[in-house]
Write a structure and sequence with these properties.
Blueprint: H1 2-23, H2 47-78, H3 84-122
Helix pairs in contact: 2-3
């Protein structure tokens, strides 16, 4: 019963997240906006810039998840009520979230450096 409640909560949250995107479709021929690539700028960019944008988007999403893990660990620590086992569990979650955030930030810096160097060496113009 508990897993059904969790699953229904995930469905509600994901529906609330994606419903505005589906409602803002501008064309009836293409309701999901897949053909209009001028909005995100990937339609006119070269392949290296497009790949860099996708990787940065994924790393940004992972960074958000790491921050949420850190917030969850802090919340668990605050609600531990002085119980040492709960505090240690919360500290472990907090430590793992901070390690994940550092890894994501380092990966972002490395990807940004590599792709800017690649664009500079190949003579392409970087837009961001």
């Amino acid at each position: 019963m508990q897993t059904i409640k969790k699953f229904s909560n995930y469905l509600i949250i994901s529906g609330a997240t994606f419903l505005p995107m589906m409602a803002s479709a501008q064309s009836t021929k293409d309701p999901f906006g897949l053909q209009n690539t001028d909005i995100n700028g990937l339609g006119k960019a070269d392949l290296k810039t497009s790949i860099s944008g996708v990787i940065e988007l994924v790393l940004g999403f992972l960074g958000i998840i790491a921050i949420l893990v850190v917030l969850y660990g802090g919340f668990r620590w605050l609600t531990a009520g002085g119980d040492t086992t709960k505090v240690k569990d919360a500290q472990a979650v907090l430590k793992n979230g901070i390690i994940g955030l550092v890894i994501v930030l380092c990966a972002y810096i490395i990807v940004k450096f590599v792709f800017q160097s690649l664009l500079q060496v190949t003579g392409s113009s970087a837009t961001n």
